[in-house]
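Q: Start with the shorter request: fold the first protein.
A: Done. Sequence, then structure:
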Amino acid sequence: MRYAFPIYLFAALALCGCHRESDTRSNVRAPGQAESSRTKVLEAGAAALQDKPPIEAINAYLDGFHFYNGRQNVQMEAHHYCAIVNEDVTQCVIYDGNVKNAKLMGVEYIISATLFATLPPAEKALWHSHVWEVKSGQLVAPGIPEPAEKELMKKLVGTYGKTWHTWHTDLDKQLPLGVPQLMMGFTGEGQANAAMVADRDKRMGIDSGAKMKDRVDIPAPSVNPAANGWQHGSTFQIADPTGSQHAHESATAGAASKASDVSARANEKQAR
């Protein structure tokens, strides 16, 4: 992928802006005592005196949706804060919101089609394509001008992502319980819960449908057939020995759920 500097300049400005009207609060409140005055003083001192190069390298904010590999009906919104490693590799930290107390849900690694082609078949099955996420208008870069966002999407449309979630706040888990879980991205019409997308759009003041129409001229590269393993009967997930009861644990290898699409939180509450 060839990232034009102005695109990420706009993205960086978006990170510095105030998204008051589009704030997305964390799904859960972690247990524990409020910060003491001593901790706040230590925190302020560290902020003033310590450099944070890896954090300062984050220069783009993307918002999209994921689902648990093996259970397409268990879905959630994911806020990506990304840094460019080089022309072919990007790394993102994923939060359950875009405010200060948002919880760190996981990570996503994004690579170019060129690098993806070099991976062994078993590895490719763990990665998902971004063509539909971009073309559908569901993947957005809040806060930057539409022309800059479109240029960014042109760079992302042919890439592949590998995503692990470690704190399942979408299931109202107040602590990062259990083991990491492999996530996937949507690849076609009707997969993402329409109400979930509409809620995001309303909160952020965007229109996914309009973005889909605007992106019709973005070329859609062919998806490597080894990606999106869940579509081809290769549904890998880490078994959780802790008994934390992930909502998708009943899924079996190679058999994605055919249940109606619902948001992860709604799915969990319905089961209670």
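Q: Next, the second protein, separately.
A: Sequence, then structure:
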Amino acid sequence: MTVGTTPSVERGRDANVPPLLQIRDATKRYGGVMAVQGISFDIYPGEILGLIGPNGAGKTTLINLITGTAKPTHGTITFEGRSIVGRRPYVLGRGGIARTFQIVRPFANLTVRENVAVGAMYGAGGARRSTAEAFRKADEVIDFVHLGAQRGASADSLPVAWRKRLEVAKALAMEPKLLLLDEVMAGLRGTEIDQAMELIRAISARGITIVIIEHVMKVIVGVCERVVVLDYGKKIAEGTPGEVTSNPAVIEAYLGKKYAQEHRAGAPPTAAAAIEEEIRAAETEGAGKDEPGRQF
């Protein structure tokens, strides 16, 4: 599919259910650089939406606009029918929006349990929680993400894979309605990715709406119902995973014009594997800096 709403996705949606989040013409300029430009799409309750694109496409900038870390130069973003443009991140956190960060930064001098309790104190239910209640919530989330054995460990002693899981736990402790996951699979291998996918499905089963920024195409194809693709700050495609990975504009963005022309000629039927291979090649240097993943 090209830019616009995908008919196959639209047919499977209850027309009476309004979007949880609406983005209209979202634009962010930094000096002479247009980081994102004219982006529009909706996110519906209970959905798992993938947000993909080559490095520098504007994915994290868009997440920053949604979470209040940055303010749009132009455009509107509404959450549950109300504009959230200009609201501080802590206000949005209390309102039901939580995120993880691509580069994990836990409170290094605190334990895993204490880190997650911070999320419980500053999320949607934080205003009414005592410290003891926050720790009880932390224990519940820690067990849910299978970090129980590390409960009392110092956050700075964890390997990268477990720090990423801690990022997810901190965000879940905020009791979000909308959870934005920024490359939580980076550093994971093999069965660790499968375990992470199961965790995402379990989070979704709790009724939490999820947006995933991810370069692991196995995850995008395996858990996402719909995918939005960005390139050079613009939305170039939207549809099911199968539709976007077969879209010539997406193939060209990742693999170049020649590959896209070959695809138009009839081979291959899908470019998901080739796209992921290209992503891995582009990120080899950065990925080598991560510690080996152990278990997600």
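Q: Describe the second briefly.
A: Confidence is low (pLDDT under 50) at residues 1-11, 285-296. The CA atoms of residues 192 and 295 lie 5 Å apart.
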